[in-house]
Amino acid sequence: MLDCLVIGGGPAGLTAGLYLARFQRKFLVVDAGAPRAAAIPKTHNMPAFPDGVTGPDLLRLQREALLRYGPKSLVRGQVEALTRCEDGFAAKIAGADQFETRAKRVLLATGAQDVELGLPDQKDAVRRGLVRYCPICDGFEAKDKKIGVIGFGARGLNEALFIARTYGADVSLLTLGRPLDLTQGEQERCHRWGVKIFRAPVRSLRVEGDRVAAINFGAFGEVVFDALYSALGLEPRAELAKTLGAAHDHCGAVKVDARQQTSVRGLYAAGGVVEGLDQVVVAMGQAATAATHIHNHCEEGIDEV
């Protein structure tokens, strides 16, 4: 019987594991091996990394820190089923070996996945940092450059305006051929911040050195950008939470309270799977909050949380 099962090996899950290890709790972190943070080319928003840090390097350092407290605290695997039982939760885990475990409490740190653009050569462009997902993380490095934002509706428009007004970039919104009806106020904001709208479909990405060319068939022909941002949103990996009946918002993100507790007693969530600001440091803070609350309540029965 574990004090806590942590599901997810990204920044949130590894932070929770570190806290639980130092609280001398009996726990296990299950890592499916595909954290979204691994795709970060470099972020400068992480304190103590003045030159920035790549996603893979950050995860490696976090794993090394956790494993100092015991090599069996982190396993590679996939939680295939999570159910309630009399004294907490039961989980079926598939990996190199298939096994079951029980835990008094569970912390979901399963993250989210980006909605894909569906364009040829996208993965290579993401790996090289030419297609980006987070202007909060790396928009500063794109200041005063020519930026394309792929998106539609309010989400795409707001991200384009955010980049333009925050970083002074030359910003264009590419709607992938979808209609975009702007109110007079939105038109005025676009004019004020110089945001251009390209409504013709984008056929493909063409990489030229350190720039991306979006081939745009229509009146605009081909337009070359220094970088592209995807503003198509996220899909929280919340299947386990939903199976247990945890409350979630209209986007599928799990709802939590100030201590990262879901609507299911004993079930916590942190990071990209929950509603809120999608940032690595935020995910780490949420995990620290959850792990501390779990530690402080571990001796209590599950119905007394």
Give a verbal description of the structure:
The protein has 305 residues and is α/β, with parallel strands linked by helices. The chain has two domains: 2-113 and 234-304, 3-Layer(bba) Sandwich (FAD/NAD(P)-binding domain), CATH 3.50.50.60; 116-230, FAD/NAD(P)-binding domain, CATH 3.50.50.60. 27% of the residues lie in helices and 28% in strands. The protein has helices at 11-22, 55-67, 122-127, 135-138, 153-167, 184-193, 239-243, 280-297, and strands at residues 2-7, 27-31, 74-85, 88-95, 99-108, 112-114, 131-132, 146-150, 170-174, 196-198, 202-208, 211-216, 222-225, 227-230, 234-236, 267-269. The strands form four sheets. It has a five-stranded mixed beta barrel. The chain has a five-stranded parallel beta sheet with strand order 7-14-8-9-10. A hairpin with a 2-residue loop joins strand 3 and strand 4 (88-95). Helix 1 packs parallel to helix 2 and helix 1 packs parallel to helix 8 (280-297). The longest helix has 18 residues, at 280-297. It is elongated and about 65 Å long.
